[in-house]
């Protein structure tokens, strides 16, 4: 038994301060836990420390103890309080080796990080951790519970009642939000949505951490999500086809890193009473756990005068327009069915924009397109109904909208945006389109697309994130933009995943940052994410001298200004940047009509009545994916399928087959003729 001066047993204390929670554990002289406390700190770490140390039993207060700190937020505490620090993975590994040597794999899911450790005899542990994405972590589950308006306890209970799993993209909170909203719009049972969220979390961790390495039992689970969400553990067991005996969830699983820190504290020199540690930890003047004020960024505008001058002089290139009553028939419609919004733009025969509409999808793109078409019909009240020359669709839902409204023309989204930008500036060199969930960067050379870059697995800094944050503050997107333009000290929020950025925002709020400073910081973050994370830009000169911006995000003037400041160049921004994809589609429809003649047989009344449909969910048994496929059956009798990962069974392109081209033969003929 370890004693201090040979009289009293020395307790060992471990403190784990993570990204979202604080954990305290006290070990007796035998190394067994005799007290533990767990709480969410909500970025107010001093308050959390007061709470957990205040729970220590009075009879332990005068006992001597040694202490160590671990966790992602523990380094500053350790340095300020002159306390030993232990890296959290090393702390967990020490516990596994000392108390659970039979474990072959450790899986730890925390607030914003996840870890997987593989143990093999005679080899050092193989440690895997998440990097720049917090998809599949506890904070991700928190976001999904908040979206559904239920507690974590309720989410866990409902997940146990589900009979079916639906695909949800856990790799990104913004993508997942759209998937969940889509399931809600389809009236999917809430229990199935909850189970699908937990299922997606496990898949994300296996995909990003295991990366093909066999996850061998016995599997030791650690972290708050595994400790408190029984159906998260069940999802892991179901996916890996494990028995209950092949998974070990220790009673102190959420304290594993703190336990390891406590074990490591036994080798430290300094000792104090538990009461002394409490006083040191809970005295803000003695232990400055609040980090220093983060670096602030340059103001978007130094004063109101500069803002007004910029507003009056900034480059605004607009689509030629005319009132609908003066439209030259026929009209050419472009429909941009995006991941979160639907846009419609109508050009007349003279090439002038006579109507534009923009509305959210709410998970139902067909209904959204029908609504904007009815808006156009209502706008024609009191004038002769114009003839429709041609309609073209683009965007995320292009194929579905073409099927639902029996449209002939579709256009690739990047090509539509390029075509719209060429209308505004024939010398355009770079196009940046930031939508709700995606980001497209198009490099143009001599009026031809030279290179295209898009975001892939992450949608941090896109429009949905900014809009969602504005809504949580009870502000409209326009009010949020206006406040950003008045900031004189924007917060530096980084360019990382939305889950991480939410934590940075909470930290900024704890540092007394104002809403306008956070709003301006988000404007910077959007552009930095596009330039440095997606494009990996080294020199702004790569963008050329003619930059055109598009997408609803650029209705935010602060985002436009941030792009100008970071590139040092003026930016052309249309007054309706959100309609530029639809504009490109309408231009294609007009060109197709002029080239091929009047091939569109529908008038506006016919278009507005085309969205009649019935739908049902069926399951594909063609392979082990067991895809849940939605079948749309339209009034004219044709069908369309969505949700299938392949089209081997449920295809949208009929049975027609085309023989492939042997590119090697083609190459030889071209080179050696």
Can you walk me through this structure?
The chain has 673 residues and is of the alpha/beta class. Helix content is 38%, strand content 19%. It contains 23 helices and 25 strands. A 5-stranded mixed beta sheet has the order 5-4-3-6-12. Helix 17 crosses helix 19 and helix 19 crosses helix 20. The chain is globular and about 95 Å long. The relative contact order is 0.10. The N terminus is likely disordered.
Report the count of strand segments: 25
What is the approximate shape? globular
Separate helix tally: 23
Mean pLDDT score = 82
How much strand?
A: 15-25%
Order of strands side by side in the largest beta sheet? 5-4-3-6-12
Structural class: alpha/beta
Largest sheet, strands/sense/barrel: 5 strands, mixed
How far do the termini sit from each other?
Answer: 89 Å
Percent of residues in helices comes to 25-40%
Concise description?
38% of the residues lie in helices and 19% in strands. It is an alpha/beta fold and 673 residues long. The strands form 6 sheets. It has a 5-stranded mixed sheet. The chain has a 5-stranded mixed sheet with strand order 9-8-7-10-11, sandwiched between helices.
Topology summary:
Blueprint (H helix, E strand, L loop, with lengths): L2 E2 L3 E2 L1 E7 L3 E7 L5 E8 L4 H10 L9 E7 L3 H8 L6 H12 L5 E5 L4 E5 L7 E4 L8 H11 L3 H8 L13 H13 L4 H21 L8 E4 L1 H5 L1 H11 L6 E2 L7 H10 L6 E2 H9 L21 H10 L17 E7 L3 E7 L5 E8 L4 H15 L8 E7 L3 H8 L3 E2 L2 H12 L5 E5 L4 E7 L2 E7 L8 H10 L4 H9 L12 H13 L4 H20 L12 E4 L6 H11 L3 E2 L7 H17 L7 H5 L4 E7 L8 E7 L4 E4 L20 H9 L2
Parallel strand pairs: 3-6, 7-10, 10-11, 13-16, 16-17, 18-21, 21-22
Antiparallel strand pairs: 1-2, 3-4, 4-5, 6-12, 7-8, 8-9, 13-14, 14-15, 18-19, 19-20, 23-24, 24-25
Helix pairs in contact: 3-10, 4-6, 4-7, 5-7, 7-9, 15-21, 17-19, 19-20
């Amino acid at each position: 038994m370890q004693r201090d001066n040979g009289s009293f047993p020395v307790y060992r204390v471990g403190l784990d301060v993570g990204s979202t929670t604080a954990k305290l554990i006290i070990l007796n002289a035998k190394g067994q836990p005799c007290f533990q406390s767990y709480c969410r700190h909500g970025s107010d770490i001093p308050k959390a420390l007061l709470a957990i140390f205040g729970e220590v039993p009075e009879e332990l207060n005068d006992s001597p103890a040694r202490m160590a700190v671990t966790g992602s937020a523990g380094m500053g505490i350790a340095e300020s309080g002159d306390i030993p620090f232990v890296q959290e993975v090393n702390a967990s590994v020490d516990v596994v080796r000392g108390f659970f040597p039979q474990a072959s794999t450790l899986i730890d899911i925390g607030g914003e990080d996840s870890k997987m450790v593989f143990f093999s005899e005679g080899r050092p542990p193989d440690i895997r951790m998440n990097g720049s994405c917090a998809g599949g972590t506890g904070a991700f589950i928190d976001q999904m519970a908040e979206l559904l308006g239920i507690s974590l306890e309720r989410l866990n209970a409902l997940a146990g009642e589900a009979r079916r799993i639906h695909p949800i993209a856990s790799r990104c909170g913004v993508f997942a939000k759209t998937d969940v909203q889509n399931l809600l719009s389809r009236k999917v049972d809430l229990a199935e949505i909850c189970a699908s969220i937990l299922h997606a979390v496990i898949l994300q961790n296996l995909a990003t951490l295991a990366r093909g390495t066999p996850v061998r039992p016995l599997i030791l689970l650690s972290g708050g999500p595994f400790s408190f969400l029984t159906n998260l553990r069940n999802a892991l067991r179901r996916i890996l086809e494990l028995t209950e005996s092949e998974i070990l969830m220790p009673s102190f699983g959420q304290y594993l890193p703190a336990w390891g820190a406590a074990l490591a504290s036994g080798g430290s020199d300094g000792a104090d009473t538990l009461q002394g540690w409490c006083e040191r930890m809970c005295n803000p003047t003695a232990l400055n756990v609040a980090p220093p004020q983060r670096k602030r960024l340059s103001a978007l505008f130094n004063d109101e005068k500069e803002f007004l001058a910029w507003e009056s002089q900034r480059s605004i290139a607009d689509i030629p327009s005319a009132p609908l009553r003066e439209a030259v028939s026929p009209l050419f419609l472009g429909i941009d069915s995006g991941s979160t919004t639907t846009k419609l733009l109508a050009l007349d025969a003279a090439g002038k924009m006579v109507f534009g509409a923009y509305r959210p999808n709410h998970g139902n793109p067909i209904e959204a397109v029908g609504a904007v078409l009815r808006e156009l019909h209502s706008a024609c009240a009191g004038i002769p109904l114009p003839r429709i020359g041609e309609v073209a669709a683009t965007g995320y839902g292009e194929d579905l909208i073409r099927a639902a409204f029996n449209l002939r023309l579709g256009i690739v989204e990047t090509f539509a945006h390029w075509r719209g930008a060429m209308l505004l500036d024939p010398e355009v060199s770079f196009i940046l389109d930031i939508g709700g969930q995606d980001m497209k960067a198009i490099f143009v050379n001599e009026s031809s697309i030279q290179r295209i870059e898009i975001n892939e697995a992450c949608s941090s800094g896109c429009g949905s994130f900014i809009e969602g944050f504005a809504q949580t503050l009870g502000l409209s997107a326009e009010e949020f933009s206006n406040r950003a333009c008045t900031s004189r000290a924007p917060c530096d929020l980084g360019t990382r995943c939305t889950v991480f950025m939410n934590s940075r925002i909470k930290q900024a709020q704890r540092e007394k940052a104002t809403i306008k400073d956070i709003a301006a910081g988000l404007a910077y973050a959007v552009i930095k994410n596009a330039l440095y994370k997606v494009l990996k830009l080294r020199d702004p000169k790569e963008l050329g001298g003619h930059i055109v911006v598009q997408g609803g995000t650029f209705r935010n003037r602060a985002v436009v200004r941030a792009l100008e400041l970071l590139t040092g160049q003026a930016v052309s921004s249309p007054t309706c940047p959100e309609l530029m994809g639809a504009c490109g589609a309408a231009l294609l429809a007009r060109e197709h009509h002029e080239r091929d003649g009047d091939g569109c047989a529908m008038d506006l009344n016919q278009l507005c009545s085309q969205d009649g449909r019935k739908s049902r969910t069926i399951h594909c048994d063609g392979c082990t994916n067991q895809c849940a496929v939605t079948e749309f059956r339209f009034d004219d009798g044709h069908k369309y399928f969505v949700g299938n990962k392949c089209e081997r069974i449920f295809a949208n392109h009929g049975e027609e087959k085309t023989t492939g081209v042997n590119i090697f033969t083609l190459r030889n003929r071209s080179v050696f003729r």
